[in-house]
Amino acid sequence: MDLGTLRELMEINASRTRNPLGVSEESCGEWAKGLGIPERGDSVLYTGCLYQMVPRIRALSGLLKRLESLGPSFLGAAMKMDKLMLSLGLDAAGLLRPPGGRYLSLLRRIALALRTSGIDFAYIRREPYNGVLYHDLGMDSLFEAQVKRVVERLYGAGARRVITVDPHTTYMLRYLVGEHIESFDLEVVHYTELLLERGYEPRPQGGMEATLHDPCYFARWNGLIEQPRELLERAGIHLKEPEFSREFTGCCGGPIESIFPRLSSEIAKKRFEELKSTGSGCVIVSCPICLVNLERESKGTGVRVLDLAEVLL
Amino acid sequence: MNLADVSRLLVKASSDKFLRLSLDRAILSYWELRKSVFAKYPRLRELADEVRRVKVSCLDRIEDLTKAAMESVERNGGFAYAAGTAEEARRIVDEIVGDGRVLVKGKSIVSEEVRLREHLAEGGKEVYETDLGEFLVQFMGPKSMHFITVSIHLNRERIAEFLRGFLGVDVDGDDVEGMVSLVRGFLRRKYFEADVGISGANVFAADEGCAFIMENESNVRLSISLPRKHIILVGMDKVVPTMGDAWRVVEVITRYSGYKVSSYVNLVRGPQRDMGPGELHVIFLDNGRIESSRDPLLREALLCLRCGACQYLCPVFWMVAGYWGGLKSVYSGGIGVIWEYITGSKEEAGKHSFACLLCGRCKEACPMRIDQARILRGIRSRVMRSEELEQMG
Fold first, then answer.
1. Across residues A4-16, what is the average pLDDT?
2. Full-model pTM
3. Mean pLDDT of the region A147-156
4. Is the Cβ–Cβ distance between A210 and A239 less than 8 Å?
5. Quick one: angle between helices B372-385 and B346-353, nearest 10?
6. Do A138 and B383 touch (CB under 8 A)?
7. Does A91 have pLDDT greater than 70?
8. Is A47 touching B (CB cutoff 8 A)?
9. Complex confidence, ipTM
10. Which residues contact A54 (CB under 8 A, 6 or more apart)?
11. Subunit contact B378:A138, Cβ cutoff 8 A
12. How many CB pairs below 8 Å do chains A and B form together?
């Protein structure tokens, strides 16, 4: 992988769509269609767009892995080609996009659970991407611009509190925004915290056995360890813990996928094996990146990988 | 900057079945030991936090502390030196060694950092690593793979084959104890032949000028007490104010390495009058440490105690061991990439920084709670900002 090409690709996509994978802000807000959610309010449900990007991540990661196995020069050449097509206005990655129905419905379930818990909230119709890939790759100016965009939209919607659905957006708003915007004073709460606070009773799943995967940013960086456990227990799910869990949880490999796709896949395999070794037929995650990576490794094993929202709500 | 070479290296290492098996064994064994150590010593976390406070306070006065340590060494009758660079350290060692011919060494990462063994060998000296793992790495390569388990990448069949050629005797590849004993027999002769013994120090107490040197095989105490000269090469980051601080550091290193008690802790305070080396030389190495202590991004890395806990528990390290960091770098894993950035090639470290998952298990594992993810991301940011990115390597 050539970092110069990657940087350019990120910059081109950011200027076109404000999203590293070219997913538009309009389509990021599609999950709320028909739910009658207002566009202004004290509380704003902000998804950060990661779930919406899952189909695109899946298509690209498969492609990157195949290209890398052909040899590093193929990967570099393909990146250059993709960059060229993007700059001509042809979204090469977009041609590979499968439908994202599952992920939109997952977000809708979260929204409905919050609503049945008596929580009023608004959403942002043209929803901006959370910027974490720019941050993680060290592209500070793109990240800063994106953070400003997110914060402007949140304030613009009248937010005093932000409800988040994934660990990366939660971390970004809780810990990273302050480095760029001094006056940021919005309360940031993950939907699981809010549901617990409101005494939410999940859909009963009596007798179901599942292995819980703590996503790194969820458990370690945000300290959200007990929340999923308590909610799953309330649903009557019998939880199995892998050897490495809670603050010592294992990573799904996702964060290095865009640069080292094959190594990333090896790490995902290893983590999936750890999770599978508990013997239950279901793995529950609460991060879109973990979902896409662990699900890929689960193919043909008979083990299902589900998002927390798909089990509870 | 092209990462293709890094990718090739890491993918190759991750597909090495033997390496994976060794890593599985070593890491799971460390994890069990760690759990039992923490169960037995529940106040360990508090002790580590206490050590962190001391070490953080040292960062602001790294030069003053080094000066105090040097004065103590001289007061005790030893010779103290401050080396600004790796080259300067090598030159000082050359002067001390003089016409000495044979040197024995305890495992020392700082001496690897300045490529001391290779330098001395190029100058016609015979140099032997006396730590068993390091001895094997010296002759079999390619580099130390972990701060503690340095030869994790070598299997006994390959070791037996090497020993057959090196010692010219018959070696049974299934008899591990027998192989250990053969190496010990070879090294025993070298301890007595050696003119100079070289070691590092895990921590150095400035008040008494005392080096604390930890080991598990008793090879270091032979290396530093039989030859007539002893050279200690220690990074300035290892100096703490008092003996009490140093003892606490020793306890934390031991327990976070997975041991309840360290097999041997050698205290060296000065030259010996009757038995042991009559000359003690202590070289305090800067090599980027002072500058990094003032760099808000890097300074936290100077708290590293080299216990290896972060390496054991890093998901990337579990796949590729010390290949992460590259074969040109002495240091390995996430913390190793940061130390390569501080002491070696910024370009190499920049490339390898992109293999970090930013998952943060290292921070959880680390007694000093060093936030490697933050530092490595910051290094990426420096790489990405560099205008010459596309022209580099």
1. 88
2. 0.95
3. 97
4. yes
5. 110
6. yes
7. no
8. no
9. 0.94
10. A100, A103, A288, A291, A292
11. yes
12. 120
